[in-house]
Amino acid sequence: MVISLSSTTVLNNGVEMPIFGLGVYKVEEGPEVKNAVRAALEAGYRSIDTASFYANEEGVGEAIKEAGVPREELFITTKVWNNQQGYESTLKAFEESRQKLGLEYVDLYLVHWPIKGKYKETWRALETLYKEGKVRAIGVSNFKEHHLDDLLADSEVVPAVNQIELHPRLTQESVRAYCKEKGIKVEAWSPLMRGRLMEEPTLVELARKYNKTPAQIILRWDVQNDIITIPKSVKKDRIIENSAIFDFELTNEEMQRIDRLNQNERTGMDPDEVS
């Protein structure tokens, strides 16, 4: 199957989501985020991932508006933050995000972290938003298998996506296998491990072989693993470079070599320890 920057994957409710997008975590509100989003859209990206916690939804919305790309071609994700969780507060948080983004609807809305004693009520609010047509798909972020088991026991809608920290040092194989079985797509945040893997010998060697960067090798590994990926950058040339991964293919043996780099090493919080 030939894949490209415009390739999509079909979520469990039939909605198509781009396999590749731009993440804007820690991208400053104002010109920085607007320029990054604009550069991505000009380069052919159609998926943008933000969150209320990132405090840059307004800039994302302005860049989308100014880019003039037809709304139906875009896929916009945002998330409800930890202190906004609960039924009524999530509905309110969603409306605030929607207005900041300046959108009629959001393509994907996620529960940012599994906050104990809160995430089920939060999910109920997401189900309401989904039934009302305010979001095209709903999902979770940073959920482990036991969180998903707990959620699925009482939910009407199976999450479409689970966005988790995932890179060659944290391959998350058990969560991926669980999600595959349940029809939940996996999306990688921090796919490049915040730049810490650029001198990893295996990746450097493969980068040399394919005349690519170690970052491009990782991102290609993601898409070949059917993992949706959203690398973050604020530099136009890097945004373009990150997406130039559709003109080569890693072999099965090379994919396995990258899998073996796993050390279960997180750069972010452990979902069981977030409060």
TrEMBL record:
Matching entries from InterPro entries are given as: AKR, AKR5G, Aldo/ket_reductase_CS, NAD(P)_OxRdtase_dom_sf, NADP_OxRdtase_dom
Positions of the NADP-dependent oxidoreductase domain: 31-262
Which Pfam families does this one have? Aldo_ket_red
Q: Which organism is it from?
A: Pullulanibacillus camelliae
What GO terms are given for molecular function?
oxidoreductase activity
Name the PROSITE patterns for this protein: ALDOKETO_REDUCTASE_1, ALDOKETO_REDUCTASE_2, ALDOKETO_REDUCTASE_3
* Active site per UniProt: Y54
What's the domain of life for this entry? Answer: Bacteria
| Site, as annotated: Lowers pKa of active site Tyr | K79
Gene3D superfamilies for the chain = NADP-dependent oxidoreductase domain
- Family stated for the protein in its record: Belongs to the aldo/keto reductase family.
Q: Which UniProt keywords apply?
A: Oxidoreductase
> Which parts of the sequence bind substrate?
H112
From the Swiss-Prot or TrEMBL record, give the protein name: Glyoxal reductase
